[in-house]
Amino acid sequence: MSTSTLETGDAWLQPAEEFQSLFEDAPVAYHEIDTQGVVRRVNRTECELLGFSRDEMLGRPIWRYLVSDDQNASQERIRSKMKRAGPIPPSERVFVRRDGITVTLEVHENHILDSAGSVIGIRTTMLDITARKRAERAEEGLRRIENKHRRFFEEDVAANYIAAPDGQILECNPAFLLLFGFNSVDEALATTIASLYPHPDAWRVFLKTLQENRLLRYSNVELRRRNGGAIQVIQNVVGAFNERGELVEIRGHVIDDTERKLSEEALARKTAELARSNKELELFAYVASHDLQEPLRMVSSYTQLLARRYRGRLGSDADEFIEFAVDGAKRMQTLINDLLAYARVGTRGGEFKVTSAAAAVEMAVKNLRAAVEDSRASVHCGTLPTLFADPLQFGQLFQNLIGNAIKYRQMAPPEIRITCDELAGDWRFLVQDNGIGIDPKYADRIFQIFQRLHNQKEYSGTGIGLAICKKIVERHGGRIWVESQPEQGSSFFFTVPKNGGTHA
Length: 504
Ligand code: ADP
Description:
By secondary structure, this protein is α+β, with helices and mostly antiparallel strands. Helix content is 43%, strand content 24%. It folds into four domains: 4-134, PAS domain (Beta-Lactamase); 156-256, Beta-Lactamase; 259-347, Signal transduction histidine kinase, dimerisation/phosphotransfer (DHp) domain (Helix Hairpins), CATH 1.10.287; 349-504, Histidine kinase-like ATPase, C-terminal domain (Heat Shock Protein 90), CATH 3.30.565.10.
């Protein structure tokens, strides 16, 4: 920046007339200030830029018009510039116009010197670069976004590609090379996405779907690796279209799904196998227990006949032996009946119907009337819902739980509370008693078939009741568990999905 020297004594002369309009309407704002910072000359462009009239500006300090964030610093800067001649480097500064709008100006300043070479002022040209700055910032933002996207594209664990409409690969990331077995980007770029499809028809279907839907979301498809090996993938593909609706670019995001697919298939096979063997076992238990009933009935009735007819006539040993036989036959009968009931849950389950849980409880209590009366038990029932279930099995479920609550009581008469609340899309039932309780370490075991915590002398039973409960609840798509402490009573919870259980 050169410093200019005015030849005449009066440094603030008007420019020659022919330059007047050039000066006024120049594309840059222009002003001159004296050493006090007072505006001595200003062109129309600057007046319009800042929103003040020339009359308002002339004769007043420039910082009243060129308003920046820090006015004090502005004044100080001007003062220090006045102190010594020499080049003033251009700067970019932000000012607030009269209307409150912020502008960025590129400021060029020169000293005005008198004939003796002393600084008598500063002349300033200012270029409004607000729009350019905004564009630069926008461009910078775009560049940052673009970089971010590129990093996503490149560093993604998913295989990403961009391809032409004919499938020609234009760009791909390292995960893509790895997934499809390419040795280099060049090798991939020499190939087409079409060649990754097992059959040209599959590729055509893909293109047609993309044309119609513009994008494919979570599409499961089998593709080929470079060496011909099949891979299962999930892909999200977006088509880019021109204004005529023609596909111009394909952008794909591919995730290897082979492992999951294989294990899913293996799991499905195992589940089917398990279901089949479960069914077989159930059928076996059913047939076996059903067919055992008949001969057992014979044994039982004849031993009872023996007991009746020959008691006291064959000696005391014989009486005792016959007692044992009668007792054993009875126990075996109960066992087989229970086993049959267990097998029937799966094999002879009824239709699911709209079922009142309260009615199921009522039926259970009715069936248990003798036990309820003998033990002077009280059963309190909260508000219970109506739900989609097998009504008979639901009754059986409550009967087993209430029956146990009575059987495993303490000295005091049993108090049984049945309530239900909602829990994450399920009905959660609770059958609570004040009985002997259960050590939490047996909380899982008691639901297994034949698992008992007591011998026959303490409490009679077969250890099937809770296994039946579990089977019924699971057939309804729920689960059952117990929360208890010894001598603290037990809380048996079970859930049933509100939207209707599974119907096996
Ligand atoms: P069973 O009553 O024939 O033994 P269950 O399958 O009904 O068979 O119960 C298994 C075991 O769980 C019982 O032997 C008992 O120890 C325990 N149990 C079940 N219900 C209760 C209860 N309400 N309070 C305490 N213990 C219980």
